Amino acid sequence: MKRNTIAFWVFTGLLIPAFGIGSVMAIFGNPESVKVFTSLGYPAYLSPFLGIARILALIVILTPKYSRLKEWAYAGLAFDVIGAIYSIIAAGNPFAYTIFPLISLGLILGSYFFYHKLLKY
Predict the structure, then answer these.
(1) Three-state SS string across the chain, please?
(2) What is the mean pLDDT of residues 105-121?
(3) Which pLDDT value is given to residue 119?
(4) Measured between alpha carbons, how far is 93 from 89 in angstroms, rounded to an integer?
(5) Does residue 120 or residue 21 have the better pLDDT?
(6) For labelling, which of 25, 43, 73, 97 has a CA lying 20 to 30 Å from the CA of 35?
(7) CA 99, CA 28: separation in Å to the nearest integer?
(8) For 89-99, how does the pLDDT look when each residue is reduced to its tens digit (9 = 90+)?
(9) HSE (CB half, 13 Å, CA atoms) of 37?
């Protein structure tokens, strides 16, 4: 059980910088963040909304209760990253640009997997 707890916190702890830093930049309208977002074909006004949604998802995942809400938070982050991967490919960017989103997706899946392992104990 201790190994599962450590693995959960490693994956979940890595989600914070992976999503938190970019989300804060999106909320405050960082010009580079907006430039990347609009280059994928999305309007700039959508970026702060998604940043706030990601921050709220991280808060829910870190909160010890609300298991049903956690499921939605994990799903929302997964949809966000899968959409980002698709958008990067559809915009004609090199496949190498999908490396960070793929790593982020792996962190989400790892955190989710070990979250459910902890629920069984």
Answers:
(1) CHHHHHHHHHHHHHHHHHHHHHHHHHHCCCHHHHHHHHHCCCCCCHHHHHHHHHHHHHHHHHCCCCHHHHHHHHHHHHHHHHHHHHHHHHCCCCHHHHHHHHHHHHHHHHHHHHHHHHHHC
(2) 92
(3) 86
(4) 6
(5) 21
(6) 73
(7) 25
(8) 999 999 999 99
(9) 22
Extract the tokens encoding 62: 């870190």
72-91 pLDDT tens trace: 999 999 999 999 999 999 99
pTM: 0.91
Burial-class residue 34 by CB neighbours within 10 Å (0-12, 13-18, 19+): middle
Q: What is the pLDDT of residue 65?
A: 87
CA atoms within 13 A on the CB side of 96: 1
The total of other beta-carbon atoms located within 10 Å of residue 28's CB is 10
Helices 31-39 + 46-62 axis angle, to 10: 100
